[in-house]
Backbone:
């Protein structure tokens, strides 16, 4: 008998939101924040960012079928360039069914937003990530003249590329947390009705009321649960079961404070939620949004 308990395999889990990124590009102050609390593991994590076989082994051990690898350029705040998109696509080649590359176009610094989205599609990118606090814009700034942002939304709407938008604060040095309010997605959901729009983190820790309002008003907007400690999920969103068809499981691993993908799944499974809600979040909704291909 093995010492470690086998992971709960009742669900074919997609972790919609983890961070496999070219950490070697991080600005020094950002890297210091990343290191905090896991000084022991930094060398391991840096190696993980270089070697997809390490990630696949962890996924096997933790009973995780698929992961979405969040990447986006943030040259001025985090340090990531456009080549972060190529990094994700290359990494995913190790097992394209299980490793889903995400990428981005920085709406503030890009000179060719439509070309940037087209390039992501050529790379096989599954989701376009926008990070308002790390790219210094509001998610509805196209209403105030940021035309590249309208082009990104419209092109993704036309081409069927889902768009994931960070909401909530960010602890990294230089991040502009005022852009984390999910209320900005009201405009986006109205102006781009066929866009597959996903709200990351439910506005945690400041804007959960706004997040819940947007998600109830716009039933075509999805909620990526990453970044919300599972044990506190029902305190943040007491009526989460009303969002059953919109929930996407995610952990944000290995971001500060997230120990393992498995631990979060187990904490989520322990919550007093209907079995069908758990299955929708962990398994079926992600299969609907991101079918195997
Ligand atoms: Zn994240």
Residues:
């Amino acid at each position: 008998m093995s010492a470690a308990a086998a992971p709960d395999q009742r669900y074919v889990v997609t972790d919609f939101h983890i961070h496999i990124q070219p950490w070697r590009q991080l600005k020094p102050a950002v890297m210091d924040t990343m290191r905090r609390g896991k000084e022991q593991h930094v060398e391991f994590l840096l190696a993980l960012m270089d070697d997809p076989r390490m990630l696949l082994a962890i996924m096997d051990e933790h009973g995780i079928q698929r992961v979405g690898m969040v990447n986006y350029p943030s040259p001025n705040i985090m340090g990531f360039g456009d080549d972060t998109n190529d990094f994700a696509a290359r990494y995913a080649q190790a097992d394209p069914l299980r490793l889903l590359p995400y990428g981005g176009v920085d709406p503030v610094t890009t000179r060719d937003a439509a070309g940037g989205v087209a390039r992501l599609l050529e790379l096989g990118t599954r989701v376009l990530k926008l990070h308002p606090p790390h790219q210094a814009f509001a998610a509805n700034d196209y209403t105030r003249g940021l035309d590249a942002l309208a082009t990104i939304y419209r092109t993704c709407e036309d081409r069927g590329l889902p768009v994931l938008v960070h909401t909530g604060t960010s602890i990294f040095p230089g991040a502009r947390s005022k852009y984390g309010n999910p209320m900005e997605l009201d405009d986006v959901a109205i102006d781009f009705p066929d866009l597959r729009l996903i709200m990351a983190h439910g506005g945690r820790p400041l804007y959960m009321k706004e997040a819940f309002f947007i998600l109830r008003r716009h039933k075509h907007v999805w909620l990526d649960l990453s970044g919300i400690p599972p044990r506190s999920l029902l305190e943040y969103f007491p009526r989460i079961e009303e969002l059953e068809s919109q929930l996407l499981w995610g952990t944000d691993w290995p971001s500060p404070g997230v120990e393992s993908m498995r631990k979060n799944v187990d904490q989520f499974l322990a919550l007093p939620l209907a079995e069908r809600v758990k299955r929708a979040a962990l398994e079926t909704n992600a299969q609907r949004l991101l079918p195997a291909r």
